[in-house]
């Protein structure tokens, strides 16, 4: 039988033992979009719906070897970069992505949780800012990450727009400031800026505590759409629609904040 032609995406991110976020969420998202998913694991986390209890980072040489194994054999139509955690790993991955031929790179700058908990140190933030952001076709910071990168408080829609302008100046071709952590009516509103065009992208917020993996899933869905050939703004719009639908059908697993339903069409009649 003749092989089925398929787009390929690569995720460079951490593993979530609970299956709700990280590599696991990325691969499920790629599969939903009929994109072949490949991966380079950057960290092993012990976590579940209640939280993270341990993180073990892989050596930079291990991560870059995984990337080399993929790109030496397959065409990579898009890349999603997630948890990198420390400066040496950020620098090693940035060096590698700069010298290999790949599709557009979507960077989810995993620096601060949606709840506002700092996840990486100042040296890693500086490395992300100077080494990784200039490689990003699309950067997807949440409210707290945008605050850190832009150096300003973000309370209003105009704050989100100004933060997008400041972060764009750091080198990413497109900045998507996510509004999931914004107060009131701004929850669910994201701001897109590509240096010329400013767009406000809004969806009706879904009232659920089961939001585990939304950031990972959004960036992976954007990468999947880019791999399939969608223009950047269309890729973001479609990815937002996908995440919103997945939030409406979370999975009944665990005793904490559960994961969203990546294969939501299979979850109901």
From TrEMBL:
Pathway membership, UniProt: Cofactor biosynthesis; thiamine diphosphate biosynthesis
EC numbers: 2.7.1.49
InterPro entries, alphabetized: HMP/HMP-P_kinase_dom, PM/HMP-P_kinase-1, Ribokinase-like
A GO MF term: ATP binding
Keywords: ATP-binding, Kinase, Nucleotide-binding, Transferase
Highest taxon of source: Bacteria
UniProt-listed GO biological process terms: thiamine biosynthetic process; thiamine diphosphate biosynthetic process
GO cellular component: cytosol
Enzyme class: transferase
All residue ranges annotated as the Pyridoxamine kinase/Phosphomethylpyrimidine kinase domain in the record: 16-260
Protein name: hydroxymethylpyrimidine kinase
The species this protein was found in: Corallococcus exercitus
């Amino acid at each position: 039988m003749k092989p089925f032609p398929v787009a390929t995406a690569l995720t460079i991110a951490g593993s979530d033992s609970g299956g709700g976020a990280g590599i696991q969420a990325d691969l499920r998202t790629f599969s939903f979009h009929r994109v072949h998913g490949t991966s380079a694991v950057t960290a092993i986390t012990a976590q579940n719906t209640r939280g993270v209890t341990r993180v073990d980072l892989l050596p930079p040489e291990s991560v870059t070897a995984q990337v080399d194994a993929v790109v030496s054999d397959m065409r990579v139509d898009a890349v999603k970069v997630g948890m990198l955690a420390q400066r040496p790993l950020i620098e090693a991955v940035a060096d590698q992505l700069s010298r290999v031929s790949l599709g557009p790179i979507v960077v989810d700058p995993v620096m601060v949780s949606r709840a506002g908990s700092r996840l990486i140190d100042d040296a890693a933030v500086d490395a992300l800012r100077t080494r990784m952001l200039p490689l990003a076709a699309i950067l997807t910071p949440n409210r707290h990450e945008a605050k850190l990168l832009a150096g300003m408080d973000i309370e209003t829609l105009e704050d989100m727009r100004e933060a997008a302008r400041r972060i764009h100046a750091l080198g990413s071709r497109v900045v998507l400031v996510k509004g999931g952590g914004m107060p009131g009516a701004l929850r669910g509103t994201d701001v897109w800026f590509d240096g010329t065009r400013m767009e406000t992208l809004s969806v009706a917020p879904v009232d659920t505590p089961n939001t585990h993996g939304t950031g990972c899933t959004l960036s992976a869905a954007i990468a999947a759409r880019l791999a399939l050939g969608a223009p950047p703004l269309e890729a973001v719009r479609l990815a937002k629609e996908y995440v919103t639908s997945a939030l409406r059908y979370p999975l009944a697993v665990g005793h904490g904040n559960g994961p969203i339903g990546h294969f939501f069409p299979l979850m109901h009649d």
